[in-house]
């Protein structure tokens, strides 16, 4: 008991004692003092919560058609009912439930495509930054080539060739984001490479893989985290764009971009079908942009305005 | 500096070759017979054989690529599956519409973005600053196609201030010279057509300009903030110059240097965004044409459209870099 208590006190001291505590606590503290970041975190938490617990919180089955309840307006409009708070679409499906399930698709899309970009971007970027010379030239010129296409165009083209569908949309968005991560990581690896601890690691005989992944990489995390947050928002936007064009999620899956496309044909009769999914996208993306901005301020003071 | 510019121009050649390789390979690795993909399902056996011969499908891949490159160099991009028209002709017909829309969006976004950025920087932490920066955060978080639809719903369908879609009213005659309708109507002094063209242009241009507007405003703000902290600005203040003069004559010159790059890079975002915006507003440009090509799986259209857009993008980036070197001589020394 007593020992446990001492350990607890020691841990507490380590957090509060400015000389002894790990720098990560400073950064977390800074992050929570940053109002932008906290606002972003709150939105993202809500978004993730909605996505994960969708079956528990959604009032209806998102795919359940109801022929008697077609195009019912939201509750505050004339003819609306509390049964469908945000109204129904042309098949009588509950808008609120579809929006809640749509969060799942967007969250998955963000995780998968940012994951692809992060893994391949980190790998290519650290190889280029560490070995320099021809591997650097080869990798970065290839990255430049991907960047030679306007952002969404390349995603559209990749999906056009792979075939439409959510999976291919995620792959395409992942691919077009690889160069952004690669560039950032290459720059930080090059910067870290010059530092003494890398020389020290080499002097004790650590092999390259160990130096890159155990020594350098953890020190390059800040810009990666910032880019991951900003990239997440952008991935949701591009994914919605692809689905809006009919290249991403396919009906009847509830996906926000596809719902906007569906609402487009009845824009005059039922404004709510296309309006609400757009607001959902706007806030989800805003959350990640706020967090990204806040993280940049907290983790990387050099980049501050 | 001339050395830097020449080197930068030379880089364009391998980049364009790389772009062409990617576009060529995409068709080659797509499952299925390329000839069938290009001609569609209803193609006859003779035309398929002719297409195989034309693409050199029985030859090795690098020879096929050589043939592809040769055709591209002769501006022969093939025929579309659906209209059986030359791809190059279809592109030339639609390209001015896209240019008109993109330029309009670029003018709106750089003009407003720079003004907003300057005011925010000079009044840092004021309500205006907070409001415009929050606004620009919303701007970059908004789906363009959705904003387009919302604008259409409010200003075209409900208020009836603007037309819903298209480039020109159906009852209006316009002699086309450049196919940029705004320019053409000014050249032919057709004021009715000018009004109609501008009214049609407004909503899509506003929708398309939001993201670049937000980015330009943020960039201008942070760059101006940095410049305003410099010593030479303090000197100007000490001399007793008016704040107006300091900001517009002294600070702006240096503050706008990074903004030039950002404005240039927006062009790529605009070209990409044009695909979505043109689709929403039925704007008869390359973006909508490309989208229709994707939906109909018309690979000739996809190939030609991509090649065109990527090539323009590469050249725009070149121009931006060269301009940047000219206005900021420090860069070419590095």
What does this structure look like?
The complex is a heterodimer of chains A (305) and B (334). Chain A is mostly helical and 305 residues long. Chain A has 13 helices and no strands. In chain A, helix 11 runs parallel beside helix 12. The relative contact order of chain A is 0.14. Chain B has 2 domains: 72 residues, no CATH class; 239 residues, MetI-like (MetI-like fold, Orthogonal Bundle). Chain B has 15 helices and no strands. In chain B, helix 9 packs across helix 11. Chain B is globular and about 80 Å long. The model of chain B has no long low-confidence stretch (mean pLDDT 84). Classes of the chains: A mainly alpha (305), B mainly alpha (334). Chains A and B meet through helix 6, helix 7, helix 11, helix 12 and helix 13 of A and helix 1, helix 6, helix 7, helix 9 and helix 12 of B.
Rg of chain B to the nearest angstrom? 24 Å
- CATH topology group of chain A: MetI-like fold
Helix coverage percent of residues of chain B? over 70%
Order of helices and strands of chain B: HHHHHHHHHHHHHHH
In this structure, how is the largest beta sheet of chain B organized? Answer: none
* Total number of helices of chain A: 13
Query: In whole angstroms, how far apart are the ends of chain B?
Result: 10 Å
Shape assignment of chain A: flat
Query: How many β strands of chain A by DSSP?
Result: 0
């Amino acid at each position: 008991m007593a020992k446990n208590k001492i350990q607890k006190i020691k841990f507490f001291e380590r957090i509060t004692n400015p000389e002894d505590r790990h720098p990560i606590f400073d950064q977390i503290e800074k992050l929570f003092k940053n109002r932008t970041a906290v606002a972003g975190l709150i939105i993202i938490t809500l978004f993730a919560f909605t996505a994960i617990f969708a079956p528990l919180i959604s009032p209806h089955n998102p795919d359940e058609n109801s022929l008697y309840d077609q195009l019912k307006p939201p509750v505050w409009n004339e003819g609306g009912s509390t049964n469908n708070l945000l109204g129904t679409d042309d098949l009588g499906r509950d808008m609120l439930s579809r929006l809640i399930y749509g969060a799942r698709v967007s969250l998955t899309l963000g995780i998968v495509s940012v994951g692809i970009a992060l893994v391949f971007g980190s790998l290519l970027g650290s190889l280029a930054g560490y070995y320099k010379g021809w591997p650097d030239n080869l990798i970065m010129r290839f990255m430049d080539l991907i960047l030679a296409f306007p952002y969404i165009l390349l995603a559209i083209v990749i999906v056009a060739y792979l075939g439409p569908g959510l999976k291919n949309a995620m792959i395409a968005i992942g691919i077009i984001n690889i160069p952004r991560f690669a560039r950032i990581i290459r720059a930080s690896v090059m910067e870290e490479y010059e530092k003494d601890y890398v020389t020290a690691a080499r002097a004790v005989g650590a092999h390259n893989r160990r130096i890159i992944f155990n020594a350098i990489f953890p020190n390059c995390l800040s810009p990666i985290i910032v880019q991951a947050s900003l990239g997440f928002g952008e991935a949701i936007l591009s994914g919605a764009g692809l689905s809006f064009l009919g290249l991403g999620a396919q009906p009847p899956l509830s996906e926000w971009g596809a719902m906007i496309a569906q609402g487009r044909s009845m824009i005059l009769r039922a404004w709510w079908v296309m309006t609400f999914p757009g607001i959902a996208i706007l806030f989800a993306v805003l959350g990640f942009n706020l967090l990204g901005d806040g993280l940049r301020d907290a983790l990387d003071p050099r980049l501050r305005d | 500096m001339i050395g830097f510019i020449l080197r930068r121009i030379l880089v364009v050649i391998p980049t364009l070759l790389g772009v062409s390789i990617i576009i060529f390979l995409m068709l080659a690795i797509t499952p299925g017979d390329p000839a069938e993909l290009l001609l569609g399902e209803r193609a006859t056996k003779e035309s398929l054989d002719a297409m195989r011969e034309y693409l050199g499908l029985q030859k090795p891949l690098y020879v096929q690529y050589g043939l592809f490159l040769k055709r591209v160099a002769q501006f022969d991009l093939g025929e579309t599956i659906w209209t059986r028209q030359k791809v190059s002709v279809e592109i030339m017909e639609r390209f001015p519409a896209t240019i008109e829309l993109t330029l309009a969006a670029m003018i709106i976004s750089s003009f407003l973005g720079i003004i907003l950025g300057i005011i925010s920087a000079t009044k840092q932490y004021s309500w205006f600053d907070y409001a415009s920066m929050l606004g620009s955060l919303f701007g970059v978080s908004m789906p363009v196609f959705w904003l387009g639809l919302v604008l259409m719903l409010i200003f075209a369908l409900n208020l009836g201030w603007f037309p819903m879609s298209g480039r020109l009213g159906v009852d209006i005659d316009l002699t086309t010279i450049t196919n940029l309708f705004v320019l053409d109507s000014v050249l032919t002094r057709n004021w009715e057509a000018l009004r109609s063209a501008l009214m049609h242009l407004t909503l899509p241009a506003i929708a398309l300009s939001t993201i670049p507007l937000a980015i330009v405003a943020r960039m201008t703000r942070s760059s101006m903030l940095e410049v305003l902290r410099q010593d030479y600005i303090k000197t100007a203040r000490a001399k007793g110059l008016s704040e107006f003069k300091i900001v517009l004559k002294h600070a702006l010159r240096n503050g706008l240097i990074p903004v030039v790059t950002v404005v240039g890079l927006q062009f790529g975002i605009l070209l990409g965004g044009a695909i979505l915006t043109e689709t929403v507003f039925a704007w008869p440009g390359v973006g909508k044409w490309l989208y229709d090509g994707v939906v109909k799986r018309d690979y000739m259209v996809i190939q030609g459209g991509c090649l065109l857009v990527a090539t323009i993008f590469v050249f725009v980036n070149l121009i931006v870099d060269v301009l940047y070197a000219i206005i900021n001589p420090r860069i070419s020394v590095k």
